[in-house]
Amino acid sequence: MRGIVLSAAIAVVCLPIWAADVKDNINTDDIIKKFAAKEAEFAEARNSLGVAYLRQGRVADAVAQLREAVRLRPDLEAARRNLEDALGRP
Predict the structure, then answer these.
(1) What is the pLDDT of residue 68?
(2) How far is CA 76 from CA 38, 59, 70, in A?
(3) In CATH, what number is assigned to the domain containing residue 82?
């Protein structure tokens, strides 16, 4: 089980980086959204989705995902920083 969770975490962290290189061929937002829906308790996935929303200018959606990530994992510094960034945007 731990191997599956580790593989999922690696996919969530690496997918946005990989997909940025092929953004014309893949919609990372859809992929991350599907993953977050399946793994509702996976804070890292919600953080990644929040970042994707920020990149699209969807601040309210980003804030919702990032708040949930911080609620699930208060120790997840990346989500906390991303939430602060999102809250500072118009």
Answers:
(1) 93
(2) 20, 20, 7
(3) 1.25.40.10
Confidence of residue 3 (pLDDT cuts 50, 70, 90): very low
Distance CA 88, CA 90 (A): 7
DSSP state of 26: -
* Joined tokens for residue 55: 């990149």
Give the pTM.
0.60
Count of domains observed in the chain: 1
Task: Render pLDDT for 26-69 as a digit per residue (tens, 0 to 9).
Answer: 566 777 677 666 655 689 889 999 999 999 999 999 999 999 99
Residues 6+ apart with CB under 8 A from 11: 35
Best CA proximity match to 78, nearest among 48, 35, 39, 36? 48
